[in-house]
Structures are given as structure tokens and as C-alpha cells.
Amino acid sequence: MRILLGTFVGLAALAGGAAGSGAKITRTFEEAQVGTPPSGFVFEVTRQTTSNQWVVQREGDNSFLVHLGSPVKGGGFALALMEEQQHKNLAVAVRLRLAGGERSAGLVWHYRDAGNAYLARLDLSEQKIGLYRFVRSNRIRIESKDDLELDPNGWHVLKAVHEDDRIRVYLGGIKVFDAHDRTFPDSGGVGVWSSGESVTYFDDLRVEDRSERAGRP
What we know:
Elements: E1 3-5, H1 19-22, E2 24-27, E3 41-45, E4 54-59, E5 62-67, E6 77-82, E7 90-100, E8 104-113, E9 116-123, E10 128-135, E11 138-145, E12 156-163, E13 166-171, E14 174-180, E15 189-195, E16 199-209
């Protein structure tokens, strides 16, 4: 796994955003051992029946993190959280491919525990994107949009920017949601999630602390 500090490199769609005092972290999986979970992550589930199998896979010259979905429907989520990353004002982005199963996955931030966090969700089985808060394991929709017409087999860039009570969500560099919510005002964990039934690929996970930029227009 490569960990790049101080440089937010890569896709233009991921650019923009700030992690404690402007620190920027990019995690890819090029140096991780294929077939095993990567170091630097903590893996959690929202229900014990949820698949929680995470490994690094490689196709051609590219390695990425994969959640191996379960054929048994458990209704829960599996989460891969970055170790030692706690942020209040941040930008988090990832490239993801929903390769099979339920095809539902996305980003998680301000994570307190498996039942309390913010989620951005991309669902390609229904061509929807949504912004949610989980409070005591109850999913509450903040914003949603359907009829996306996205390639179900392609890679897509999902990004969330949280500054004070303002939350913006981008898909492919285009702003989809601009909302306000005060449910979780304090720092929390950050990472990615997949539904237990989904086979999901993740790459280029990037976090930027935006503490110095919070409150700006």
C-alpha cells in the first residue's frame, strides 16, 4: 500500500478539498499483498450476518481493495475505516466499481460506531445516489437522486466534503448534493463501505483535512 502525505495527486475529479491543518493522505494498494486485507484499515460490520471479507486484488498493473460480497442477504454493511484518521472538516474521495451482487456502496465519515455516521451511497442496481445519516442504526435520508444512467460496470468517482454543518457530495466531479446537517458535529472516522451482498472495488482513497477552510464560502 502506498501512503502519500502532502500531495493530492491523481484524477482531476478528486481535486479540491482540506485533513488536520491541511494534511492530505492518499491510499492506494499497489504495494499491498494480493489476496489479503491491507494494513492501515479497521474492518467493521453493522450486523453479524454481514459479509466482512476484504482483500487486495490486482488486474493488469492496477491493485485495489475489494469487498467480497456474500450470496446470503444479511441487510447490513461492511466498513473499511482508515486507522488513526479522525476528522471534523474534511474532503474524502474514492474511485469505486460496483462489480456484482446488490451493487450498493460508498463513503463513510464522522463515524462514531457501526450505528452512527454519515454515508454517501451509490446504488447502481437502482441507478441512485443518496446522502444519509445513521443514528442508532436507523438510516435517515438527507438527500437522494435517481435516474443516473451510469455504466453499471465502470469505475466512478465519489466525493464528500463536510465543513461545519455543510455537506456536499460529488459524482464524477459534478456536485449532486449541497445540504446542511448538525447531527454529528464532532470528529469521527472515515473510510468506505459496501453492502454485505455487493462485490465492490475501491481505489485511490483520498482524505484531506479542511479545518483551515471551514466557514469559507
